[in-house]
Amino acid sequence: MESVALHQIGDAVPVAMLVVDHNARVMTANAAAVAMLGAGLTDRPFVTVLRQPLINRAVDQTLAPTQAQEPASTRLSATIRARGREQNCIVTVSPLTVRGRRGAVVVLEDTTGVEQAEQMRRDFVANVSHELRTPLTALMGFIETLRGPARDDAAARERFLAIMDREAGRMNRLIGDLLSLSRVEQEERRRPVERLDLAALVRGACATLAPTAKAANQTLRQIDKGLTAPVAGDPDQIQQVLHNLIENAIKYGSRAQSGGEVRVTLFHVPHEPVLRGPGWAVEVADDGEGIDHVHLPRLTERFYRVDTHRSREKGGTGLGLAIVKHIVARHRGRLKIDSMKGQGSRFTVILPEWVPPGSGSKQGRGG
Q: Assign residue 120 a region: left if phi > 0, alpha if psi is -120 to 50, beta otherwise?
């Protein structure tokens, strides 16, 4: 009866827990422990379950019969290897009376995810600091020069002020993207429900960016065949996705001075497996140099750049595709990136087709 009660209590505990008897054999292991360490844990010597000297020493000290007084709990940090991977854990070993004799309960809290998140936070702060330091250093240097040697040199002053304006603009874009990324992450769990016409947003984005394409010696071609594309979404965020993808294609989609064409195609997807239903897709394709396949899995990481110098030269912050990824995730959509070196790139966003509230059926094309 006691072992059944221990098992029931253990399964109610959300972290891995093992109960050890006075012979240092595992009496029971809860579901979280089985998930972490594997099956077949009970009725085995504890030392064969966790081959970690620090933890085994703590268990031995807790079970030691020479101690006149009840031993205190031991809390320690340890790295364990289970199921082929290493996990960082906070381990608590506490005394427990089992069948009238001294036993122990071992609790394992996996902190691997917490530590990875903390490392990501440190990396993010370091990246932001680096991205801001570069233009700030340039601004401070030119201010010092303008106060000194270039004070009375009109030509140098104009040249330096132009560079300072560019660097200040770069910082402003970076801060804007950081704020945008923060807002998107905060809202990511709230799915938009407003009905939008994706086709109208595509036409608006193309009209807005046509002068930018012309200035870059690019042709911006919109292909939607007059469709109406109903989706549920946040209009500002969808507009931001379209602008980011089209601007990227304009910036990086041409080869040297020969120009190129950016094609923005809207089409219906009868069934998208990831969405588990129909959707509407916007594909932004260019004729640029393309991206080596080794870079594709990391393109949506914050501050990841294929060509750091070229990206900064074009005014990129390294956050655009990260913002796109989070917005698409909030809309329960899908982002696909296809590119080969020397053959251009295609970025495709697929959003679920809008379904009227309370409707059990999927909405048809253009409805």
A: alpha
- Kindly state the tokens that stand for 123: 């990396």
Domains and CATH numbers, the chain: 2-110 (3.30.450.20), 112-187 (1.10.287.130), 191-367 (3.30.565.10)
Express each pLDDT in 151-188 by its tens digit.
888 888 888 888 888 888 888 888 888 888 888 888 87
Residues lower than pLDDT 70 in the chain: 1-8, 10-12, 65-70, 254-259, 307-316, 358-367
Q: 97: part of which helix (H) or strand (E)?
A: strand 85-98
Residue 324: HSE in the Cβ half-sphere, 13 Å Cα cutoff: 24
Q: What is the CA radius of gyration of the chain?
A: 29
Q: Which of 170, 171, 149 is nearest to 160 (CA)?
A: 149
Classify burial at 359, counting beta carbons within 10 Å of its beta carbon; exposed 0-12, middle 13-18, buried 19 or more.
exposed
What residues have CB less than 8 Å from 109, skipping those under 6 apart?
Answer: 15, 16, 89, 90, 91, 92
State the distance between the two ends of the chain, measured CA to CA, in whole angstroms.
63
Record the tokens describing residue 308, joined without a space: 């750091």
**Residue 157 backbone dihedrals phi, psi, to 5 degrees:** -60, -45
Nearest to 301 by CA among 316, 327, 323: 323
Whole-angstrom distance, CA of residue 80 vs CA of residue 237: 43
Q: What share of the chain is helix, strand, coil (3-state, %, to 5)?
A: 45, 25, 30
Tracing tokens 């660097």 back to the chain, one arrives at 167
Measured CA to CA, the distance from residue 9 to residue 21 in angstroms comes to 16
The whole-angstrom separation of Cα 296 and Cα 286 is 16
What tens digit of pLDDT does each residue of 106-132 get? Answer: 999 988 887 777 777 787 788 788 778
